[in-house]
Amino acid sequence: MGYETSLQLFIDGVWKSGAGRDAHPVVNPVNAQPIAEVPYATKDDLEEALAASERAWPEWRSTDVEKRGAILHKTADLLRERADHIARTMTQEQGKVLNEAKLETLASAQLFDWYAEEAKRDYGRTLVRPAGQLSRVIRQPVGPTATFTPWNFPLYLLAKKVSAALAAGCTVISRPPHETPGVGTELFRALHDAGIPNGVAQLVHGDSALVSETLIASRVIRKVSFTGSTNVGKHLMRLCADSMTRVTMELGGHAPVLIFDDCDLEKTLDMVVPQKFRNAGQVCVSPTRFYVQSGIYDAFINGFAERTQKVKVGNGLEDGVKMGPLANQRRPDAIEALVQDAKTKGARVLAGGERGDGGFFFQPTLLADVPNEANIMNDEPFGPVAVSRPFDTFDEVIEQANRLPYGLAAFAFTENGRRANLIGDLVESGMVGINTFAISGADTPFGGVKDSGFGSEGGKEGLESYQVVKAVHQA
Question: Is 419 exposed, middle or buried (0-12, 13-18, 19+ CB in 10 A)?
């Protein structure tokens, strides 16, 4: 079965394509062959979307929360009904294995259901005042919003922003990545079929510079939400500064994993290896820097290497495949350069370390004894490479975990309760998983510190990020 998604823009309730617009090829990362073309929005398209978003906002923010919630629930139902088709589209565009794509689709539906209900519990508060006076604090939608999302979780990250913005009463214009336009198209097709009013939710594929600069420069846009690299995030923040546009930034990471000698070693290995190579390591919270206590270091890296060598790599549409290709042709080049640099500086390759055959494949890789001077210990690899080095003391490993300017996610494996409490307190990270990788859910805040960004998505914090606080005083 081939690629079956019709790629279009969705502006003011109308699907648009062709008509003199530029087009960009969509490439299947399995074989580097084009499978479709995505139409790019023109300047006029963007201006039309802005005007529609501004016009639709007063009506949408005044729409009863039950009616808004019903549309979000219907969107969730449609995503579930279409999950098989959406998952196939995602695998063809992005490369992740079909089962992971299906789970991402179902998790995206859950976000719409959760925010449909959370908006009904958006309470303010009344302050204590003398008789006859009233002071209350309320939250209101910030206004028209622009979202920018990456290709690694092309549906879930888009759904996380759009569901919360719509639940809060904001209108939204979304620009998904050009690598995975079909997945974004399917989300907005579900919104349209669920009855979203014209102008409330709009999709604009296109040149990243033109779209970001046009939308952010407009006074219509009151909030920007971005997930992507730290460098691009900082650039968008500069654009937002001129108009004082509010921002949420979920940026890069380089997650440390602290493995203590009292952990259940076999159970830990069975958890960390599949997690490392999920989505070919193209996960912003992917466990990457493995710090292993000296007494179990050799046993850990040997067990890790043995499991890594058994990971089946191939086309994500095929049964039994556990890891697909990288998402685009830039990634194998970047990973290869990082591995070669680490080897030059003394790292040992215990598994993988080479490109795969054809397409954008790279072997699942484990590097041992990686010095801090290696680039891969300082720059997020965003690929199927785990790096490891031993440590002796608790203080030493906390220092290493906090050494980088990133702080998105961190993980630790220990059976010592007091140590676990200290890790939660001392590790500089927006999220910490102890004996678990389950750190992202519809009801949990997701965000980082330091160069990994600020603001949270998910949970009630995600809803609040699309709201402004107003204090009303009456005497």
Answer: middle
What tokens were used for 381?
A: 């690899």
* Residues 236 and 266 placed together within one structural domain of the fold: no
| Mean local confidence (pLDDT), 47-76 | 98
Name the DSSP letter for residue 313. B
Residues 464 and 356 in one domain: no
Q: What is the CA radius of gyration of the chain?
A: 23
Nearest to 101 by CA among 363, 360, 316, 314: 316
Residue 284 designated active-site: yes
Cα-Cα end-to-end distance for the chain = 68
* 151-187: pLDDT as tens digits: 999 999 999 999 999 999 999 999 999 999 999 999 9
Question: CA nearest 189: which of 103, 44, 89?
Answer: 89
Indicate which residue of 250, 380, 457, 464 is catalytic.
Answer: 250
Non-local (6+) Cβ contacts of 269 within 8 A are: 300, 303, 304, 307
Q: What is the pLDDT of residues 274-309, one digit of tens each?
A: 999 999 999 999 999 999 999 999 999 999 999 999
Q: Is residue 2 part of a domain?
A: no
Give the C-alpha distances (Å, rounded to integers) separating 114 from 27, 102, 145, 173, 431. 33, 19, 20, 21, 21
Residue 110 lies in a domain: yes
The model's pTM: 0.96
Residue 74 has a pLDDT of: 98
Which of 100, 263, 284, 380 is the catalytic position? 284
Active site residue 250: yes
